Give the backbone structure.
Amino acid sequence: MGESAQASDQIQDTVVNLAGKYLTFCLADEHYGIGILKIREIIGMMPITAVPRTAPYVKGVINLRGKVIPVVDLRLCFGMNAIEYNERTCIMVLEIAGRTGDILIGIVVDMVLEVLNISSDVIQEKPEFGARAEANYILGMAKIDGGVKILLDIDRILGAEERDALDTEDQ
Amino acid sequence: MLKDIKISTKLGAGYGLGVIALTVVCAIAFFKIAGLQHVVADLSQTHIPLFDVVNAVNGSATEQELAVTQYALHKDEKLISKYEKLDSLMSQKFKTAISLVNGNPKLVRKGWLEAIDIIAEQHDVFAKSCRRYLDAVKANQSGDQLNLLAADVTARLTALMDHIEHFLDMNNAESKAVTEMADQTTQSARLTISVVGIFTVITGILFAVLIIRSITRPISHTIDSLEKSADQVASASEQVSSASQSLAEGSSEQAASVEETSSSLEEMSHMTKRTAEHSTQADNLVREVARIVESAQESMNELIEAMDEIHRASDEKSKIIKTIDEIAFQTNLLALNAAVEAARAGEAGAGFAVVADEVRNLAMRAADAARNTTNLIEGTVERVNHVSEIVNRTKKGFCEVANSSKRVGELVGEIAAAANEQAQGISQVNTAVTEMDKVIQQNAASAEESASAAEELYAHAEQLKAIVENLVNLVGGGGRDSDKAYFTRRKNSKPAIIDQNAASLRKYERGGLEIGKVREVSPELVIPMDDSDFKDF
């Protein structure tokens, strides 16, 4: 009983920590949210230069005002099937913590929605799906307008991926 | 063999034989009679006149002598004239006698002329003596002279009379001889004639029998066959009559059905003509429809063009709206970026965050407006598409209508042509049926004619049978009362019982065959000489 109280307090703290502004986007009819501080820029779809010998979800690189930013297809990351890019498809440039500081990575999303100020009372702790590391990238769930927006910990997603990619590079 | 000879030949032969026999008999008789006549002529022309003449001479001489002697007594001049007359008469008589004898050469050969000459001489002598006496008397000579002369006269007269008697005896003898010859001739003639006559009769009878049989038998056979033929003709005519009647009935039925057919054909013809007219009208209508469809298609094409223009205009509008939408989208992105920057800026960016928010709102509004417009345009486009689709469908429909109407037009044209041909064909069939009707009428008339001809034929057959009856009677003779009854029965019968009559006829035939049978040749049997039999003739 005490542990659960502690756990719930921890959860409560986590939930409180999760409150803030999130940029919501749509990916395969599911709404996801990423903390606004993580987001550097949102741009519309632009031509991606493919880079060979990269993971399939790594689409390539783009030239954004002189900067070369790698682009990843979040769908392929999540194991969903890729779709045709339309005029609503956007590239969200994120700042994530890398090994040697913040790196910019672009992710392809189906649609950018809005900036939402999500309060803690609508956030819910992520459910346990087992002891797998994959579920760690979900920060929590936000119940807004009858729907559920999945708040993503983008560091976990792309950091791990990068690490894996780096691992594979090393190997 | 007798059968091969014609009846006329047979009859001719029979009669010929009879005629020949008769001719022979007549010839014989004629000759005999001629002989008799010769004898009679002899007698009548020669011997009897000679008798007369010589007797007259005798008488005259006697009268002369008497006259002379009387003159001696009475001395009447009349006696002398009488004597002269007698003398002249005497010489006439002598001339007559001579001419008579001259007329008979046989007597001349026998020397009768000389006899008469002798008598004439004797008479001359007597005449001289008479004259001497007369002269003596005139001279009134003495009685003794007178007596002498008278005795001389008497003597001369006696001598004359002797000679005359001798002559008369000769004449008598000759006459008798001639008469005997005549008798002989007569007898021989009678004999000959009777013999020949009997022979003729017998042979005639024989031939008659033969010929009768040879005539009657074929005639009987012919009668039999005639009767049979008449029967067959009658029955055949019956059949023909019934066949013709049935033919006439059939023809009338045919005529009736032909009438029906003709009337149905008329109707059909009318209907076909109407169909042809209708199809022509339909053809015209179809052509009009085709024209209308063409014009409609043109309008449709124009409509489609107009709609295409609308489409293009809508497309342009869409492009513009899309541009606006992009702008709104980009603006939204900018607003989001601004919000992000504002959030990064923290406190300092709070106002900026509001501005970014407003901008985002504006962008949203623009996007909304663009979306609405897009919706409207889409709606319009949709409606235009809908209309276009409808127009296309309509166009297709019109095309199909045009095709169908063309096909209908073709079909109608074919129908019209076919209907025309049908009408022609029907009219031809009509004429053919009319012809057929005529022919049927003719057939019916012919059937009627043949029926009446069959009736006539039957009547003629009956007549033929009657004639055959007559012939049978002629050939077979009488005594057939049953025939008369048969005859009357037959006359009263109707054609329907021809068969019965035919049976009776056949029975009669069998009875009638007896005539043809060979019978013993006996005149009394074969030739019906009974009066009872003759009553039928």
Chain B is about 90% helix and 0% strand.
